[in-house]
# Entry
Amino acid sequence: MKRKKMEKTSMMLGFGITALVVGTIVFYGLGAASGGLEFPEVFMILTVIILVVLATYTVIERFRAYKAGLPLKDEREKKIWYKAGYYSYLVTIYLALGLSFFSDYLIEDLGMTGFDIGVVVGIIILVSGSVFIGLYFYFRQTGKTE
Amino acid sequence: MASIFTSGKLARLSDSMKTRIKEFRDKYNLTQEDLARKVGVRRETILFLEKGKYNPSLKLAHDVARVLKTTIEELFIFEKGG
# Structure
């Protein structure tokens, strides 16, 4: 009974967060489009859209499992989450190290005066999110959980 | 039949795992979803177990065997990895 309640709460949270993210992207996209989009912004918005589509697919799939009386997570699903999380954590660490190590070269080539903290945080969130979602679907399809 | 345990050491659970889940499932007229619901896992887990592409925990192997009214050794066949 307690598990059912937790699963229902988790489902509602999943739908709520997805709706909030989609709404934010739509408003941001509309605002940015009126001012003219540049390549980095288009790339960022596309990446976020792909992430949101995949996350929405996962939420819908979980809703179907919930309706069918199946658990939202089982031991295989947990293993996949942990494995994808482990690799995305490693990628994030190396990315942060790489950004700090190559920042001088990147700044010279890009003609920037320095990395804005927002840009660094944005890059890290997008890359680690993409790696996590990508690996999650890869491990799920191939069954490579060991 | 190879055992999970060989010479007191846990055998390497390589790709050479075979299961008889489908055979037992057919015997009791259960779909993958029915079995998943009875065991308390997702349908995909049963699918990958049947394909021999997922090494289950001892608890999951025990739960599947209990639902299919058999033993773990009857259900899962581990062949020694190379």
